[in-house]
Amino acid sequence: MSLQPFINEAISPWMKEDGPDNDIVMSTRIRLARNFEQFPFPIVAEEEELQPVFDLIKNQYHHESFNQYQDFEFVSMADLKPIEKSVLVEKHLISPYLAEKTKKTGVLISKNEQVSVMINEEDHIRMQLYFPGLQLERAITQAFAFDDWLEEKIDYAFDETRGYLTSCPTNVGTGMRASVMMHLPALTLSQKINKMVPAINQLGLVVRGIYGEGSEAIGNIFQISNQVTLGKSELDIIEDLQSVVEKLIEQERHARQLLVEQSKLRLEDRIFRSYGTLKYSRIIESKEAATCLSDLRLGIDVGYISHISKTILNELMILTQPGFLQQYAQETLTPKQRDIRRASIIRERLNLEEG
């Protein structure tokens, strides 16, 4: 297996599966930060001090398998072109921060792309496990098992009082970030989300955009995750996040119902205008495309549109990002060229679905 399967397909295999509450929850992720006990952490290490970490992961885990996570592929960041790195970021297989680093960095990716392990990012190891829909309990169980498998060959930096030691103080303790990606168009349209975000923050959670810290909530997609990692167990954090997400699901469904009951014609008009824009536009910018795809997905969820699957919308949300557009074109594109190609790909994909 090479890099090509990871950058040629917009949809990861696990994303094609159904998950609980997938009308609102797109995915669940568990990320664990770990460091080697015997080596300086990446934020202060020299390149030669990161080499042993890089070599151990590559030599020990390349083409290895663990349970359902088969045939891990080790990819060195130094071997990738900028566009290839952008594609991996757009698929959430690596972070934007890792894509910018050059000193002995890499990523280990399972064949089904459900697990990726970033090497020498902010920490020596940042493992990520993804699941469709809302599956926090299953995700943490699988993450614990995978973490134990790695630890068989690695001595982690761990303190009996503080827990796992990490480069950033906000990750010390469990080293865990649990996050849920949610599509919240009705709460956004009704402007209720603006009141909810401060309340969520007060509970020790944070609301971010689709690509995490510093990113926008493009296409009404929000990432809800824990902020606290010290003083609480992993299961306590999961329980708190589960509770908040369930309340958001309830509020989003109620907001959708009110839109259908009280603003049916206006909602239909918005959805079908967006559908027409996607189906007939010759030029479309990324933000407009994301907004229209969000409206179309809402139309599917409330039953206005029945001949298009949600899977294709997940695919187009990634496929129309700058990195993927240029990967498909096999050349660097100007912003205008990307807007033209984005519109073309959306038209072709929608026509294929309708056909």
UniProtKB/TrEMBL annotation:
Annotated motif RDXXRA motif of the pArg binding pocket involved in allosteric regulation, positions: 338-343
Residue ranges constituting the Phosphagen kinase C-terminal domain according to the UniProt record: 24-255
Ligand binding (ATP): 27-31, 92, 126, 177-181, 208-213
Class of this enzyme: transferase
InterPro entries, sorted: Arg_Kinase, ATP-guanido_PTrfase, ATP-guanido_PTrfase_AS, ATP-guanido_PTrfase_cat, Gln_synth/guanido_kin_cat_dom
Source species, domain of life: Bacteria
EC number(s) reported in the record: 2.7.14.1
GO terms classed as biological process: phosphocreatine biosynthetic process
UniProt keywords, alphabetically: Allosteric enzyme, ATP-binding, Kinase, Nucleotide-binding, Transferase
Gene3D superfamilies in alphabetical order: Glutamine synthetase/guanido kinase, catalytic domain
Any one of the GO CC terms: extracellular space
A single MF term (Gene Ontology): ATP binding
Notes on how activity is controlled: Appears to be allosterically activated by the binding of pArg-containing polypeptides to the pArg-binding pocket localized in the C-terminal domain of McsB.
Catalytic reaction annotation: L-arginyl-[protein] + ATP = N(omega)-phospho-L-arginyl-[protein] + ADP + H(+)
Family classification: Belongs to the ATP:guanido phosphotransferase family.
Chain's role: Catalyzes the specific phosphorylation of arginine residues in a large number of proteins. Is part of the bacterial stress response system. Protein arginine phosphorylation has a physiologically important role and is involved in the regulation of many critical cellular processes, such as protein homeostasis, motility, competence, and stringent and stress responses, by regulating gene expression and protein activity.
Protein name: Protein-arginine kinase
Organism from which the protein derives: Paraliobacillus quinghaiensis
Gene name of the record: mcsB
